[in-house]
Inverse folding.
């Protein structure tokens, strides 16, 4: 029930019912995703993480994921494969013995 | 194999091996997500969608999803439920008969 | 020496020496500005405002302003006039008696 | 009349009349700036640069500049100096003979 492929199908069905595929080129989807990530960020503006509204966070993170699903579809990216490949790559950029307990960027480790 | 819960577990295992939970408050995770969404956007800067590098897009969209998974975990949000609730809400904001074939924002329909 | 028009001329001279006007449509400039604002934000990721690197902040805020100058030029916007018109409009959205000492958005005042 | 220092003073007067300095730590100002840059970007979503609403662009670019002025003040950055130092640095990263007519990032020239 929380399979990415199923969620992606539901987002695509929403889109197709509105005939929006014509607008969904990858560049504009990346714009949309970035804009939604900013709206999510706005939940935390001027406040401590704990003071942010959980209902609003849930709505905005959903928008981020919906655009991620749509952009992945349009760019023919398998998201599960992409995440696993990136975690593997990040493991090399941030080896445990160097990165443990440090928030520095990889080029500063 | 593309279940969100599994991917989330893998992202958390990566994080915990590096003892990074201490940095991962929701506010900074939202910053991280927004920064990654911008790096994804950079794949398309100055160019047509078709000219963007697919390898780079795959890497950056993976980072976006990894932060989404981590932030959802930290904010105790069920992502599949959040996406479905939002698609339902968007169906009300963008009714098919009004929104079909139009890219306008809901308050302009 | 800190006149916006002069700074804008210097940014345009830099651009024209490289024959970059051809890439500078307003949409891509807005992408560039958003990406630079994110790089500025990254100076503060995982850390308290005081721990951010002032040299890096200065570089990134400069990039933000350079793109702002270029986009304003391309969109034929007088920035000083735009700021003053917006401060006036914000004064109406955030009247002193309602907004004083509160960080809420105008629709929540 | 378009001097940065004057505009900065006007933005600070707006802020101080509302007693908002208490919220304006550099980290949250950087969040605010990034959010406004995203709202500016939204003017161009799903459309060609020419189709964007010039009134909206003017308002949003003003917000970006207002936050830039406030953050520069809080971080004790001289914006004119920052822009000139960055243009100089960019001249080294993008030498005319290599960068002319090319939109590539400096590490790909």
């Amino acid at each position: 029930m929380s399979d990415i492929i199923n969620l992606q199908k539901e987002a695509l069905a929403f889109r197709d019912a509105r005939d929006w595929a014509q607008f969904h080129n990858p560049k504009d989807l990346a714009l949309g995703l970035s804009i939604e990530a900013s709206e999510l960020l706005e939940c935390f503006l001027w406040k401590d993480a704990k003071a942010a509204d959980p209902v609003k966070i849930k709505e905005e993170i959903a928008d981020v994921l919906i655009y991620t699903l749509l952009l992945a579809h349009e760019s023919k990216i398998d998201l599960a494969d992409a995440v696993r490949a990136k975690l593997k790559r990040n493991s090399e950029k941030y080896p445990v013995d160097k990165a443990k307990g440090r928030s520095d960027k990889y080029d500063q480790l």
Summary: The longest helix of chain D spans residues 54-74. The helical segments of chain D are 4-17, 26-42, 54-74, 79-93, 96-99. DSSP finds five helices and no strands in chain D.
